[in-house]
């Protein structure tokens, strides 16, 4: 199986620990794919020419992910400043809005499109600035797209016609709101929809049936990356088998493991505190 993640990366800087961890939705999904048995995983994204960018790329390489098509450019890599509350829930207190990634966009050459075409699924996100590339990319590969909490009508209309899987963070939505969102996204042409709901578990609709999955109870150290873990493992299992219930169960079990460590997937590196970014 070959899967590819394209787009956002970041270092999550834990102020209380003076430690940075690699992350970002596309990066996290790539790592969890590899850790949970996907034979070949590639990542394409943009990093800055700084310590943070180097740490992101080195961490991915250590996870045996192909990073040969990562662009390194002059400027700051993406950074988010994070604290943890007493329950281990992450709280973002600032960021540099993606650093160089918000200034530059990924352009794909013919050879890269041919390369992308050799994979089973491409995963990207609302933080990856790839919306205008989706009509092109979907001619080469099925796409999964993480909207986070972006539910507005215009954005859904921009993205949904071109993707196979839509993923939303719905922890602040009621059951009724989740089901209304799912119906709206199906109407816009997306056949498969995942809604993660934090401690409430997750929902999945394949256009025919709505599936529900609870969380797996665990000792929580840090919830950062748990939702991305669920999504990664669900996508991998569902693409392989088409069995939604089994894919959701495996995703929930993997997410509980992520909650037991700091950072989305580890690779912490000590770094002096800087001025908090806005």
TrEMBL record:
Keywords: Kinase, Transferase
One Pfam family linked to the record: PfkB
Signal peptide: none
Single Gene Ontology MF annotation: kinase activity
Domain Carbohydrate kinase PfkB: residue ranges: 11-264
Domain of life: Bacteria
PANTHER family for this protein: RIBOKINASE, SUGAR KINASE
Name of the protein: Fructoselysine 6-kinase
Organism: Neobacillus bataviensis
């Amino acid at each position: 199986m070959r899967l590819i993640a394209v787009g956002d990366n970041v270092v999550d800087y834990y102020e209380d620990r003076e430690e940075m961890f690699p992350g970002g939705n596309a990066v996290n999904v790539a790592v969890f794919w590899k850790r949970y048995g996907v034979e070949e995983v590639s990542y394409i994204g943009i990093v800055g020419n700084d310590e943070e960018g180097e740490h992101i790329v080195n961490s991915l390489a250590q996870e045996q992910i192909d990073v040969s098509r990562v662009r390194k450019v002059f400027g700051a890599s993406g950074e988010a400043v994070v604290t943890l509350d007493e329950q281990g829930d992450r709280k973002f207190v600032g960021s540099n809005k993606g650093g160089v990634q918000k200034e530059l966009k990924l352009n794909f050459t013919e050879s890269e499109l041919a390369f992308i075409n050799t994979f089973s699924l491409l995963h990207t996100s609302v933080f990856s600035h790839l919306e205008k590339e989706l009509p092109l990319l979907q001619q080469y590969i099925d796409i999964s797209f993480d909207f986070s909490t972006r539910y507005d009508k215009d954005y859904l209309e921009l993205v949904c016609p071109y993707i196979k899987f839509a993923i939303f963070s719905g922890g602040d939505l009621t059951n009724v709101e989740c089901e209304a969102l799912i119906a709206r996204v199906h109407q816009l042409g997306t056949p498969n929809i995942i809604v993660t709901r934090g401690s409430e578990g997750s929902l999945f609709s394949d256009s025919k049936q709505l599936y529900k999955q609870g969380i797996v109870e665990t000792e929580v150290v840090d919830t950062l990356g748990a939702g991305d873990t669920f999504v990664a493992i669900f996508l991998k299992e569902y693409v392989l088998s088409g069995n939604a219930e089994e894919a959701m169960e495996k995703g929930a079990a993997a997410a509980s493991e992520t909650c037991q460590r700091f950072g989305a997937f580890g690779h912490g590196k000590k770094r002096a505190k800087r001025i908090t970014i806005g």
